[in-house]
Structure prediction request, 385 residues.
Amino acid sequence: MKEICTYEKCTGCTACANICPKSCIRMEPDQYGFLRPVINPVACIDCGLCVKVCPNNGIIEKKYPRVAYAAWSLDDKDRETSTSGGVSSVLSSLVVNNGGVVYGAAFQNGCVEHIRVSQPRELHKLKGSKYVQSNLTNVYTLVVQDLLEGRSVLFWGTPCQTMGLKSFINNKRIKELGDIIYGDIICHGVPSQKILNDHIKSVIGAKGKESYSLSFRDRDGYFLTIRHNDKLFYRKGFPQDKYLNGFQYGLFHRECCFECQYASGERISDVTIGDFWGLGETTYPKKKVSVVLCNTAKGVKLIDSVRDKLFLEERSIQEAIQGNSQLQHPSRKHEFYNFFHWAYPNLGYRMAVNCSLLKFYLKYFIFRTLYRNRRFQVWYNKKRA
Prediction:
């Protein structure tokens, strides 16, 4: 087998590597750090399973949501420690407390990777936004093992990761004894772990080689916070932090993110969650409110089972879609995207990101300078209103 799917369309979902009967496909990073399948031509038997399982090579079945909710966890501590409304935490707790397992992204050992959680005390590892593509390794195979052993499974991932798992399970043609619930997170695009690591090293220097903890959001908003040896070492918000800035404008995204076939109102999972951007008139504050889209009967049943643990207000599906650009179209490519992807492997991260964001920071500096003038403040605020 020479090619599984076209290079630009590969999402790095790992379905091909997991299904290969000869284990001759390895996921290796390209020059930007994005994992891509590499085939060992000597071991390959041309069975074609990798091509068949790849979601890019088939028709993807998507469903329009059945119902949309504005929601949050009724547990104040749970909501406070979540970056949005804490809905995924409530659903994950339900599954684990009933003897099931949850798979989701966690930051550990200096990188973001999918982990298996079967104990309530470990669920905290799945909390928080991760603005980087997680490493799935052999997670799909582990999910199948759990299903064959009769366990219920809840899987959280980006839409392309969730679709990769669905395709993997369908192609394995297994007779599951357990039940699986597919959950997806509204995704704005994914940078690579390599780019994130290079950014961390650029802001904390040599200590980037040592242990640290990381978060991208907190109660005050979008802040990249790095703690080293349990002490605050770095904390900057958007747009001052260049990684958050580059992520926000798609500078670091994988190429396929700009043609994402999952960025639409129709979904591939049982339940979709994210921030409820564009939330209309309410009687409550709009901070830390999740949008929940129940896309299948299984998704509706799942949410109904935790009504006593969630604040739920049914909202218009159209409101949920119109308020979130990623439910309408893929991310837009940054004007300096091509420059960054030339400069990064040739000039290094620091030079590439500084040059790519120079225009933005010049405009930002000029605006901040003008905003100190009272007349400009009045004019600008009146214009925004």
Q: What stands out?
A: The chain has a mean pLDDT of 92. The chain has 14 helices and 13 strands. The first strand starts at residue 25 and ends at 29. The chain has three domains: 7-57, 67-191+254-327, 193-251+335-384.
